[in-house]
């Protein structure tokens, strides 16, 4: 089965072809980071318009790379939600329009399920069941995963997502957009222990998160500076922030593994590429003889490959899920546990 995947939930346009026999055939991605940098964040209307410009050229690119014809595909999967409504509509219209023209069935895929399953695209994929940490700019959730479509929410952020806290704290330090990678790089030059920041909900008896207070603590430290902050001070604050956030994420993941009795942890989402988080998780897991699995770095951010793969996994279990009804809708808000089969 060959599935075309279309991703357009936010500011990356991704298309990919996945074959259940041969694996990933081709994928292409365009990031809008450069366009949004001057605004300090994603502008939804600009994002939607850029998806319109990029989708068809990327579509041509993946078919040229794969060497297969349009008619060779068996189905088309697209991100139905969650995400920016206008951006989602672009991908949905491209997928359904192409499906209509080729007489191929289409399937709406949950964006977070794509992230959740993306580590299975790696050369060392995890086996079910496992605990998953979905950690990105819009989401921070711990899930129990027993199989495709078998998800139990263990805990989630009560306010800011981890990636959002990264971006907002980076902005407070005068760093560029996207802030996550910038503050992470700066933290490498910081001295530990110079600033003490809170670890929100570190000792709570659940698996929920809260990062709004951590961001506020960074704001307080910055405001308390009596002179302009020098680069070393910025690095020290960045180090304190990253250490605090990583401590919380690592502790919650270890607690979730202990609670469920599982030995495998999967990390998915853009923040999963963070160097300090990976180091912290690997060290904590090694002490407890747990295994940690990550997507390939190119698949940590939004991409079409994860949507094509998730669509293929769904269709292998439920071939009837793909429809030839090309009237489409999107779901900007869509809890992952609502898609359980």
TrEMBL record:
Substrate binds at residues 134-138, 167, 180, 274. It catalyses: L-threonylcarbamoyladenylate + adenosine(37) in tRNA = N(6)-L-threonylcarbamoyladenosine(37) in tRNA + AMP + H(+). Binds 1 Fe(2+) ion per subunit. The keyword Metal-binding applies. InterPro entries: ATPase_NBD, Gcp-like_dom, KAE1/TsaD, Peptidase_M22_CS, TsaD. PROSITE patterns: GLYCOPROTEASE. Required for the formation of a threonylcarbamoyl group on adenosine at position 37 (t(6)A37) in tRNAs that read codons beginning with adenine. Is involved in the transfer of the threonylcarbamoyl moiety of threonylcarbamoyl-AMP (TC-AMP) to the N6 group of A37, together with TsaE and TsaB. TsaD likely plays a direct catalytic role in this reaction. Belongs to the KAE1 / TsaD family. This is tRNA N6-adenosine threonylcarbamoyltransferase. It comes from Herbaspirillum hiltneri N3. The lineage of its organism: Bacteria, Pseudomonadati, Pseudomonadota, Betaproteobacteria, Burkholderiales.
